[in-house]
Amino acid sequence: MTIWKFPIKVVEQQIVEMPQEAKILTVQVQYGQPCIWALVNPDCNVEERTIYTVGTGHPASHVAGCQYVGTYQLHEGQLVFHIFA
After folding, report:
1. Around Cβ 36, how many Cβ atoms within 10 Å?
2. pLDDT (0 to 100) of residue 47
3. Tens digit of pLDDT for each residue in 23-69?
4. Is 10 helix (H, G, I), strand (E, B) or coil?
5. Could you read off the pLDDT of 2-23 as tens digits, one per residue?
6. 42 backbone φψ class: left, alpha, beta (φ>0; ψ -120 to 50)
7. How far apart are CA 24 and CA 4, in angstroms?
8. pLDDT, tens digit (0-9, with 9 covering 90-100), for 60-74
9. How far apart (Å, rounded) are the C-alpha atoms in residues 12 and 81?
10. From CA 54, how far away is CA 60, in angstroms rounded?
11. Of 54, 77, 41, residue with least CA distance to 8
12. What's the distance, Cα to Cα, between the start and end of the chain in Å?
């Protein structure tokens, strides 16, 4: 097992490829880039995971039943986003 970083975009929905059974640990910003860190088995086959980004104050009904990953901020806290998988 090892921990891998997956850069993500600031878009409502995206596909991130990661090894099967990867356990998402957190989302944070590194050098201005939002990233997800996950505990992975590098020997597992890759699967597609749908990642949702919801801005504070925006509708979020489409993430009902999804796993909350975390929250990150950009532009010194002017923009706050919440990540679900």
Report:
1. 24
2. 97
3. 999 999 999 999 999 999 999 999 999 999 999 999 999 999 999 99
4. coil
5. 999 999 999 999 999 999 999 9
6. alpha
7. 10
8. 999 999 999 999 999
9. 10
10. 6
11. 54
12. 21
11 token code pair: 């878009």
CA separation for the pair 38, 15 (Å, rounded): 15
Joined tokens for residue 10: 């600031």
Specify burial of residue 53 (Cβ count, 10 A radius: 0-12, 13-18, 19+).
buried
Q: Read off the amino acid at residue 62.
A: H
Which residues face 32 on adjacent strands?
none
What CA–CA distances, in Å, run from 60 to 8, 65, 72, 81, 82? 19, 11, 16, 11, 10
- C-alpha 47/C-alpha 54 separation (Å) is 23
Q: Burial letters for 1-13: b for 16+ Cβ neighbours within 10 Å, e otherwise?
A: eeeeebebeeeee
